[in-house]
């Protein structure tokens, strides 16, 4: 029974475009009306009709400790008593900044913003401001939020660096300055870096582990080539670690693959569920920001004390002994049996740490082009099969599932069994 959900959704559609405040929440690919959530506890969410679901979306990544973790809630509560916002500096933002600078070797300075979109937008502006160059390079299938310059994908022809907007309302100027290459294509990368266009290149922005075309790890040499070539042509390398930062370990993907980027964008996990994101990196670039330098960036609610306090509590938890080992063990417990069951089923599971995707219709995904064979109808059946068994997975195939520290072995085993039985029963 989802009567209350459906009623609320209908009313929401009258007042909010499509009834949602972010498009992917509309469940448009899975053939049912979206759920309206009421609350969450540990690894479970409850909808307004009282149905419960084991949650593998985790608010799209932030909730690495699960829902309503008592320490997080208490920290927020304590801080809230002091007032919600001042627009004046507080000690807690200094503490969170110091913590991240201490933990991540490439970060010498950091500035907090309120969304990943803002973080990437600011990183690009810093790069352009520091280099006095205009062009940026991004990769097809990587997502960096919804600022104009980044809502651009490759045009036709794999090696053409012509691009087109993925949204109406993006100006030709923004498109012209954004160059596009396929992800994980080292040959294309080398060819590009031999061209003269790199003289105008301010930065390359990349998801070091792609999470927004489903989970796609970088092939060996891809990130290394990027680091080497950007350095050679004097462009900045920006790691968008909005998903991977503090998800894949305390030093994120850059620690895992041992790469030293110039700037890094954080989001999701560092806010623990509050609207927090950040851009950080080498001091010589970060000091280009106003009030020291000439690159302007600002935010009324940036560094909000409640959000900072939650972020700080989150990072303290993540430094406890064995946290990431535990996440890895939970992730394996869930995915190992599934990977086995997928053999010969024209599907695959790709995982890095506690993030993974099950691709239906593809045996391997290395870049955006490989997504063209994905079976959307099959995914809709898969989603509904699990949803009806009380398991909530991303309502779109090209997204990551997230395992949290709150997932119990019982729920992980039940989920693995349910996923496997979908593939056995399928005809
Ligand atoms: C989620 C995400 C963003 C955008 O963050 P918002 O807070 O939604 O604006 C940017 N980059 C990556 C890699 C993301 O996953």
Tell me what you see in this structure.
This protein is of the alpha/beta class. It has two domains: 3-68 and 321-425, Alpha-Beta Complex (Aspartate Aminotransferase, domain 1), CATH 3.90.1150; 70-318, Type I PLP-dependent aspartate aminotransferase-like (Major domain) (Aspartate Aminotransferase, domain 2, 3-Layer(aba) Sandwich), CATH 3.40.640. The chain has 13 helices and 16 strands. It has helices at residues 3-15, 70-80, 91-103, 116-131, 172-176, 186-194, 222-233, 252-256, 283-286, 305-318, 323-341, 376-387, 409-425, and strands spanning 37-41, 44-47, 52-55, 109-113, 135-139, 152-154, 163-165, 178-181, 201-206, 236-240, 263-266, 277-281, 347-352, 355-360, 391-392, 401-402. The strands form four sheets. The chain has a seven-stranded mixed sheet with strand order 4-12-11-10-9-5-8, sandwiched between helices. The chain has a four-stranded mixed sheet with strand order 1-2-3-15. α3 (91-103) packs parallel to α10 (305-318), α6 runs parallel beside α7 and α11 runs parallel beside α13. The longest helix is centred in the C-terminal third of the chain and has 19 residues, at 323-341. The protein is globular, with a radius of gyration of 21 Å. It starts with a helix and ends with a helix. The mean pLDDT is 96. The chain binds pyridoxal-5'-phosphate.
């Amino acid at each position: 029974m989802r009567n209350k959900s459906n009623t609320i959704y209908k009313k929401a559609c009258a007042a909010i475009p499509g009834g949602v405040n972010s498009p992917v929440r509309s469940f448009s690919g899975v053939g049912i009306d979206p759920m309206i959530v009421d609350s969450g506890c540990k690894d479970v969410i409850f909808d307004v009709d009282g149905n419960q679901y084991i949650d593998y979306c985790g608010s799209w990544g932030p909730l690495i400790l699960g829902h309503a973790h008592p320490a997080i809630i208490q920290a927020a509560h304590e801080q809230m008593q002091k007032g919600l916002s001042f627009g004046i500096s507080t000690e807690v933002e200094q503490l969170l900044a110091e913590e991240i600078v201490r933990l991540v070797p490439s970060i010498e300075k950091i500035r907090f913003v309120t969304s990943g979109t803002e973080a990437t937008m600011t990183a690009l502006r810093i790069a352009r401001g520091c280099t006095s160059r205009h062009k940026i390079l991004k990769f097809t299938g990587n997502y960096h939020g919804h600022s104009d310059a980044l809502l651009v994908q490759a045009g036709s022809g794999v090696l053409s660096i012509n691009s087109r907007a993925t949204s109406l309302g993006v100006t030709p100027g923004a498109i012209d300055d954004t160059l596009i290459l396929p992800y994980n294509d080292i040959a294309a990368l080398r060819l590009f870096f031999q061209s003269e266009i790199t003289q105008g290149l301010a930065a390359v922005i990349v998801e070091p582990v792609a999470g927004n075309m489903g989970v796609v790890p970088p092939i060996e040499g891809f990130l290394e080539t990027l680091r080497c070539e950007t350095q050679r042509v004097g462009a900045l390398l920006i790691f968008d670690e909005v998903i991977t930062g503090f998800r894949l370990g305390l030093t994120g993907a850059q620690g895992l693959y041992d790469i030293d980027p110039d700037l890094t964008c954080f989001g999701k996990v560092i806010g623990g569920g509050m609207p927090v994101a950040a851009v950080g990196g080498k001091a010589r670039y970060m000091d280009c920001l106003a009030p020291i330098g000439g690159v302007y960036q600002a935010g009324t609610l940036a560094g909000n004390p409640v959000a900072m306090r939650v972020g700080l509590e989150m990072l303290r938890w993540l430094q406890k002994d064995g946290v990431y080992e535990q996440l890895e063990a939970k992730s394996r417990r869930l995915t190992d049996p599934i990977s086995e069951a997928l053999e010969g089923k024209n599907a695959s599971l790709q995982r890095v740490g506690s993030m993974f995707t099950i691709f239906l219709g593809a045996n391997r995904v290395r870049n955006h082009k490989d997504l063209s064979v994905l079976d959307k109808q099959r995914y809709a059946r898969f989603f509904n099969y699990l949803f009806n068994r009380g398991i909530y997975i991303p309502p779109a195939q090209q997204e990551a599932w997230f395992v949290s520290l709150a997932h119990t072995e019982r729920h992980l085993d039940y989920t693995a069994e349910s996923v496997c039985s979908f593939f056995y029963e399928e005809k």
